[in-house]
Design brief:
Structural class: mainly alpha
Strand content: under 5%
Order of helices and strands: HHHH
Helix content: 55-70%
Radius of gyration: 20 Å
Distance between the termini: 37 Å
Number of domains: 1
Shape: elongated
Number of strands: 0
């Protein structure tokens, strides 16, 4: 699991069609380019495997983020706080928008994080509900 969440140094290209970079080695994955249909299929397969590996890391990081959200949910439950804090989310979205680099537009990044924050709130609500049920049993 640690290998999945380890940070890989991925060069960010400002080119409209960046070269195919192997995300783990940083080398051009298709330095000479495919010579025939078989090589092109093999190259496509290799690139898709790279995306699959990234997707695995993204899921691992999202789960890691939710574990932290769960800790926050437990703390909120003990303090009697609400789950949703719009000012906190607006600050987070603004911070990420400023730090944004690469190919995502601000709108795309905001949309992705709004989904992540919705999932985080839903998880925290489940944590709060579980805590309330346990308190009622006592």
């Amino acid at each position: 699991m640690q290998a999945l969440v380890a940070q890989a140094s991925v060069p960010v290209s400002k080119e409209p069609n960046p070269p195919s970079i192997d995300i783990f080695t940083g080398r051009d994955a298709c330095a000479t380019g495919p010579k025939n249909d078989s090589e092109m299929t093999s190259s496509l397969s290799h690139l898709r495997k790279q995306i699959d590996r990234l997707d695995d890391r993204i899921v691992a990081l999202l789960n890691r983020r939710l574990r932290w959200a769960e800790k926050i949910g437990n703390l909120k439950a003990r303090r009697g706080d609400k789950v949703y804090h719009p000012q906190r989310e607006q600050k987070l979205l603004a911070r990420l928008s400023i730090r944004r680099t690469g190919l995502l537009t601000r709108t795309e990044l905001r949309s992705i994080y709004q989904c992540i924050l919705r999932a985080s709130r839903a998880h925290q609500k489940r944590v709060l509900q579980q805590a309330q049920k346990q308190n009622r049993k006592r």
